[in-house]
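Researcher: Here's the sequence for the chain we discussed earlier.
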Amino acid sequence: QGAKDVKHQTFKRRLRLVARNWFLVLVGAAVAVLVVYSLVLKQQASLTVKGTKYRSAESYSQIVNDILGQSWLNASKVTINKDNIASEIKKSIPEASQVDVSVPVLGSKPDIKITTDSALAIFSNSDNQRYVLSGKGRVLLPLGESTDNLNKLPVVSNKTGINLEEGQQFLTPAQAIALSKVIFQTNGSDKVTYEIPIQPQEVLLRDESRGNYFVRLLLDPETIEQQYGAYLATLVNIESNPPNEYVDARLADKVFVK
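Model: Thanks. This is the structure I predict for it:
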């Protein structure tokens, strides 16, 4: 009877050991599944757009999600290429001045924040196609694709002879600041148009309410307001004999009129 009891106890211990091992295996497998699942990313972003929204929310989401779907590497928190995603978004959304891509600890959607440039003017290209020109001098999306009503913005015509495309730099940021100061001086009037000639550091301003002539200004943010002020002062001085062709106020302290 004693031998039978020993065998029975030994069997019970082995059974408990097997059960415990299987439990540990099952727990380990469950943990492994949870870890793998926690690393999986949906190719669908949690998207935030700051600044002017030139497109619908659906359009922004579609562009971003299509980019996420371009590579299987973006389906894992371990292998996702955040820098490449940000670069591709900037290419596809030229109004995006900054793109931040981050991976959530618990969530399954990449967090993407897009900051857009503000609109300065309507950019009329050499082929007469119209785009949005940013406050930093970049050519953004075609005007017709913008959901924001920008038709009252002043028109800046590209007369350099070089046709530009979406995302390309037309003016330097400093030149864009100078242009914005002139636009402010004219109160953003739709009677005033601007041409950028072959010398892209200059602007030719035409104000149809004042006459059929142009004003040549240098796109220097430090002196542009003085140049414009000198032009207005000159108009007062020559009121009885207004210009027929141009006013050159680039030097500010010396204005030439023809």
